[in-house]
Amino acid sequence: MHEPGQLDELMICRLDAGRRELMPCTVVIFGASGDLTARKLIPALYHLHRDRQLPEPFRVVGFARREKTGDSWRAELGEAMAQFSRTKPVDASEWEKFGRRLSYCRGDVDDMAAYKRLAEHLGAFGDPRLSRNLLFYLAVSPSQFGGVVARLGEVGLLQRDPEPSFWQRVVVEKPFGHDLASARGLNADLTGSVHEKSIFRIDHYLGKETVQNILMFRFSNAIFEQLWSRQSVDHVQITVSETHGVGERGGYYEEAGALRDMVQNHLLQVLALVAMEPPVSLAAESIRDEKVKLLESIRPIPPASVPRQVVRGQYLAGPGSDSSSEPVPGYRQESKVKPDSNVETYVALKLAIDNWRWSGVPFYLRTGKRLPLGASEVRVEFRRTPTVLFAAQCGPTLDANALTLRLQPDEGISLRFNGKVPGASTALRPVRMHFSYDATFGAYTPEAYERLLLEALGGDATLFIRRDEVETAWGIVDAIREGWAGQPLTAREFYAAGSWGPVAADELLASEGRVWRNPYPIV
Ligand code: BG6
Predict the structure, then answer these.
(1) Residue 147 to residues 116, 191, 479: CA-CA distances in angstroms?
(2) Which of 29, 211, 346, 487 has the fewest CB atoms nearer than 10 Å to its CB?
(3) What's the confidence (pLDDT) of residue 175?
């Protein structure tokens, strides 16, 4: 006899049976001395190595300006691993074996001679698969993207149309531009030397299991997809809240702000997955076509409407998220932040999607730093029952049904509905049905970068952002920025650290008879 859980296991439907085997290759990291390399890329590659997911043979070359040797780079990374690895302690023998795959090539990204040295370095591996199948990871400033790919092209390492049986790909990080014009400029710089199909633009939210699950959940379940439209949905709330402030990133953040840092990419990506139409197939281009169509259906917010549809905020000093912790400084007191900065650390906005499915259904998005709880979730709130029977008597106390996709932490999905409180009296209250990833699958939480690197090595672009996606998203965000231009923050736009944002954000929903449903800790 099988237990029910075992039967479910037997019903696993594997979709990657036709997946291509990874080919031996080399990952070249530009910006190898930087934070991203130590915190994310090397830990991710190490775990892929440890879990036997990498091809054989496989090499990683660090390229950066600082003077170091392969040994000193490895030693440095070893120390960082002790801090940043998701599994601890790091397995010394696996790390040692992984370390044999790493080497360092010193060079300045502007120096043509350095690229020739890189070509020699790769050639010295003596295996054409390691010197011609190349994944270039550009963990450098976007202003350097164009120069790097052009020089790689000049030394023959990066070909627009690689010879048959070899491939070269370029992975780039955000920020991908700071507005539509600069994103177009970057795209032009990159596509001058690399074919669009070989450019992999990262949004690390797409590497998260729960974000990938949005499509699986929507299109493998008949019961929910039937409800996924204006006929049943009252509105959707997408919240990405963080407890930390900007910390050491004040310099970057002063140029970005929450709108560029989070909304342009992570929140709009989640929105696109939640609201897009079913793709014609699971091919990368079919999925990305639908995401672009959805982004294009978002009604532009003219600058004059920004004050009515978008709320920005900036955190003041406050108690922080944990009542026992020390008080935390306000944004303007953070290092590298101007004392009179008007940069937003919080944004809430209402978007309308002008298509058949979502006409009349508002999508409320919000994100902020120094909020009381760090959580990302999508809440689909369904329409209320007619005001007869229970609703006639209970009024708004009869809760609307809601489905919440908790993206992180405590990943899971909850369905909220009403039920009778047991007992002789007649009373109703909301109850919850909850699926927890942890309870069902155990604590398997690979880093987003592991999945993303693996996909890039395999040449599958589904989890990466296409040129038209990035540009459409910038168009939406630029219009909002235009509405804010030259307007300093007003008193109503500040919020105390440890609170759920400025009051104006509550008013945005209250004016339409709705309330934000704040994420809560799931126990
Ligand atoms: C990054 C932003 O892209 O995403 C950060 O630059 C933000 O400001 C981070 O804190 C959030 O990512 P995660 O995975 O912690 O939700």
Answers:
(1) 15, 12, 30
(2) 487
(3) 87
